[in-house]
Amino acid sequence: MKKENIKEIKKGEIIIYKILDKKIQVNVSLDKETIWLDAHQIAKIFDVNRPAIVKHINNIYKTAELEQNSTCSILEQVARDGRMRKMNIYNLDMILSVGYRVNSKQATQFRIWATKTLKDHLVQGFTINEKRILEAKEKFKELQSSILFLQEKAKHELLAGQEQEILSLLADYSKTLSLLEQYDTEKVALQKNGKGKFILDYENTVKVISQIKNDLVTKKEAGEFFGQENSDKIKAILGNILQTFDRKELYPSIEEKASHLLYFIIKDHPFVDGNKRIASFLFVYYLDKNNYLYKDNNEKKINDNALTALSLLIAVSDRNEKDKLVKIITNLLSN
């Protein structure tokens, strides 16, 4: 038997066969110009028990109808007990041979389908994969939607003079959301890669805002109401960023926490004055404390001008556009 392990089989995994009347769907693994199924999957397709499939396979090998070393391979996977488990998997030639020996309605359906569809895929090099096509369309729509959003908001009067920064955001965002990479790796648009150790608590926040206010007042760039709390909103915002559900954080990554911190402070107005400036500074402060402010080349992931544009975009946006803005920011941070 061929002792080759198909370890990367998920890279070629495609859903290509459905039995509609029984609501059965089988994930067929494509590898090395053929497909591979185990005996359980073959039994499901043909609507028989696994022992019957194993019996047919053994008879096919005994009669030398097919060679074992070219139609059977071994897949290694981790079982529930943590141990490595070896499983025989069989290629298209074996699946078709078994299908012609099994006497069932589903076996007949599969033979008809395989003749018309599967051979076309393997010979001509394409497959009609509706699920993947729909996913690609949705990701492309999301990218288009984000770009149109930035273009539309750039026309707002509060963003006058920020046109160049909006264009820069568009360019950076397009680079980050490379369509080819998105489709190949099937990444979601919301990026959540960084894991931070620094937690921005209320006491630390008050201290930082006090320092900012002192500097700005000295420069005559802020008044007495700058940083003055509006009820307990800032405490609520800091709590929201750290909130959990079923013992899991709702915003587990640095990108998500920082993006929501910026958004909530600007939109919820926790301070009487200075919300955009405070939000921007705390955004930078939080990223810096988590060593996530700079790229590998020591450039800021989001420079000061771009951050100003983002803050204004948040300010003029509608509440129902929150997720779109958060995805834009998280992608820029992950670049």
Provide a concise account of the structure shown.
The protein is α+β, with helices and mostly antiparallel strands and 335 residues long. It is 54% helix and 11% strand. It has two domains: 120 residues; 202 residues, no CATH class.
Fold and architecture overview:
- The protein has helices at residues 39-46, 50-62, 68-71, 92-101, 105-124, 130-153, 163-176, 179-185, 202-218, 233-241, 254-268, 275-289, 304-316, 322-334, and strands at residues 13-19, 24-31, 34-38, 72-78, 84-90, 244-245, 248-249.
- Helices cover 54% and strands 11% of the residues.
- The two termini are 46 Å apart.
- It is elongated.
- A 5-stranded antiparallel beta sheet has the order 1-2-3-5-4. Strands 6-7 form a two-stranded antiparallel ribbon.
- The protein folds into 2 domains: 9-128; 133-334, no CATH class.
- It is built from 14 helices and 7 strands.
- With 335 residues, the chain is an alpha+beta fold.
- Helix 6 runs antiparallel to helix 7 (163-176) and helix 11 packs antiparallel against helix 12.
- Residues 1-16 and 174-189 have low confidence and may be disordered.
Please count the beta strands (DSSP E, at least 2 residues each): 7
Strand order of the largest sheet: 1-2-3-5-4
Give the SSE order as H and E letters. Answer: EEEHHHEEHHHHHHHEEHHHH
Shape descriptor reads elongated
**Mean pLDDT across every amino acid position:** 75
Query: What is the number of helices?
Result: 14
Number of domains: 2
Helix percent band:
40-55%
Main sheet specs:
5 strands, antiparallel
Structural class: alpha+beta
| Amino-to-carboxy terminus distance | 46 Å
